[in-house]
Amino acid sequence: MADLDKLYQAVLNGDAKAAAAVTRQAIDEGMDPLALVQGTMVPAMGEVGKRFEADEYFVPELLLSARAMKGSLELLRPLLAGRDAASAGRVAIGTVQGDLHDIGKNLVAAMLEGGGFEVIDLGTDVPPQKFVDAIQQKGAQIVALSALLTVTMASMTKTIEALTAAGVRDRVKVIVGGAPVTQQYADAIGADGYSENASSAVALARRLCGAP
Amino acid sequence: MPTTDATMPTTPSRQRVLATLAHREPDRVPIDVGSTGVTGIHVSCVAALRDHYGLEKRPVRIHEPYQMLGLVEEDLQQALGLDVQGVFGRKTMFGFPLGGWKPWRFNGLDVLVPGRFEVDEGPDGDTVIYPEGDRTAPPSGRMPKGFHFFDTIIRQEPLDDETLRLEDNLEEFEPLGEGDLDGIAEDVAAARATGRAVVASVGGTALGDIALVPAPFLKHPKGIRDITEWYMSLNSRRDFVHRLYARQTEIALGNLERVHRRVGDAVDVVFLCGTDFGTQTSSFCSVATFRGLWLPYYKQLCGWIHAHTSWKVFKHSCGSVERFFESFIDAGFDIANPVQCSARGMEPEHLKAKYGDRLVFWGGGVDTQKTLPFGTPAEVREEVLRRCEIFAPGGGFVFNAIHNIQAGTPVANLAAMFDAVGEFNGRR
Fold this sequence. Notes:
The complex is a heterodimer. Chain A contains 9 helices and 5 strands, in the order H-H-H-H-E-H-E-H-E-H-E-H-E-H. By secondary structure, chain A is of the alpha/beta class. Chain A folds into 2 domains: 4-85, Methionine synthase domain (Methyltransferase, Methionine Synthase (B12-binding Domains), Chain A, domain 1); 87-209, Rossmann fold (3-Layer(aba) Sandwich), CATH 3.40.50. In chain A, helix 6 (128-138) packs across helix 7. Chain A is globular, with a radius of gyration of 17 Å. Chain A starts with a helix and ends with a helix. By secondary structure, chain B is an alpha/beta fold. Chain B has one domain (12-102, 159-426): TIM Barrel. Helix content of chain B is 35%, strand content 13%. Chain B has a 7-stranded parallel β-sheet. Chain B has a 4-stranded mixed β-sheet with strand order 2-1-5-4. In chain B, strand 12, helix 9 and strand 13 form a beta-alpha-beta unit. Chain A binds chain B through residues 14, 55-56, 58-61, 63-64, 67, 97-101, 103, 106, 125, 149-152, 179-180, 182, 196-197, and chain B through 126, 142, 144, 146-149, 151, 227-228, 231-236, 279-286, 289, 368-370, 373-374, 406-408.
């Protein structure tokens, strides 16, 4: 029988090969994929987040764990299709228009996915309309905006304005982050939340979605 | 063979930099803007300053086309009262040399770019740029339409650990040839002739700088070139990274020796490494990882420099890096830059009290994420005066904004910054 503790450790230690092997075995044995995600992988990524907050894990460890988790999730995804309970919420994430930096955005996306969210990654240099489309066409409940440059922070404001103009601002929560971004800035532009790192972004998204 | 005369008379500018580097309080706080790729200023801001000070109207040269940094020429240096002169690397971030200047129109501004600066309009009106100016190679940088900086286009070939070769990640590190050394000697001689302190970036000495890993200067980079893959490799391929740093250090030591043989002590400061270890609130690795993976090589490089030259060693790292400062000192770094006081644990009073007699703070003068671009001139003045009050006593301080001055910074704020340093210096 698939050793779920081994899966937990594989995600925690960023061992993608071991994580995939246990996941395949669990699928072959007919284990409940939702239980695998919620009972093992989400808690493992939760521990990764805790270690990151405690300065025991850093960017390389976070990326390795995220890769291990994503590899397993890709194997499980076809089996999870149509099961709404599988998702803590749907997030459209992107680096705002004019900005091509994506390390921070990718870390937040990975941690959100590891936290049980369905993540629509719109990439970098994302025009406001693409966020509007993600809400209207894909039902995103949270919009997560990232910026590294002072000159592109204004694109966050423009994106929020575009959501308002399209009449979808009330349907979503907007969260922001990135090196020059602060809580004060988030408040000033009318965002619903700010997170200073990838791990606390998960807690923020859960709070805004009313997820446990 | 060009050589450099290190016995040229020492001017007040150089004198005050040397004093502050020796942790003696100079007659006034020395100022640097534009001597390196991390203490620079966006071309649009250089143009605005030239207008502000009523200097001759002419296109500004972009000496660093990745961050679009403008050259601070002699007339502006004098207007601003700068004390440091830069000697830049032989090639730009996109692999072509400086020189052969030609006009280019950049966001409505007439500028000059190096002759082999080759760009095209990409999808969505972006600007893409070609490595070594070679249009037959895939572009290596992209600037979104209407924005202000290039960023690297990642060109990662499929990676296979079985066939991953050290040489692939060493392509850009090679012994300097006679032509390069001639160029460096000429540039150092010209820099010394200005009478300012000389900061030289000779290249090839940065270990794992994430801006350099994707190699936007190479036509067809091989090895580990993806940023995410590189960060993971610090853990998952640590032996490979060790071997890479060891070989790179060996090549760099040879180059430092060659450069020193040519320019001697005409250089005052050498820019060694811009690898960022800090984020806004934390770091990219633990102190233990730093001491295991970087410190041995930094010690070799700094050790050679201190044993054979009078050069001071300049280390750049953004972010929250106070936790590394004891290790920086152990490594032999003399100068910390940019001293990002807004990052966690980087309170200026604390840094000055704890490390002020062992590290020179080159930066920390004003916040470029908030105060300088978005504050009022009065707020800029207040912050600059306060930072000078904290960092200047006893020397060990070169005034510089925290990292490059970004596009969009109001010229009134830049003038307020220079006025405030002048005001502080006038008090003494």
